[in-house]
Design goal:
With 85 residues, the protein is α+β, with helices and mostly antiparallel strands. Helices cover 25% and strands 14% of the residues.
Length: 85
């Protein structure tokens, strides 16, 4: 069976952060992909927009011959700091 014309798919996973905006909707950032930011009116729409933004971002990197960042080696930690009130 020939594989000409078929594209091998790769599954990459990224954490996303959703921030509720005061005027409504959600801004989404992808910490591992600098400048990969999008927006959706609902949580579901924001997640769908993030998926699309990540796909386009990665496609653009590959077209330019750049490495695609992954989250390999990342540690996730929630930091609490005390600040004067």
């Amino acid at each position: 069976m020939s594989t000409v014309g078929k594209h091998e798919m790769e599954n990459l996973q990224y954490h996303i952060l959703l921030r509720a905006e005061p005027e409504g909707g959600y801004t989404v950032i992808v910490p591992a992909l600098p400048c990969c930011i999008t927006f959706g009116e609902t949580v579901d729409e924001a997640i769908a927009m993030a998926r699309e933004a990540v796909e386009v971002y990665i496609e653009s990197l590959r077209e330019r011959g750049e490495d695609v960042p992954t989250e390999e080696g990342y540690l996730e930690y929630r930091l609490t700091v005390e600040v004067p009130g």
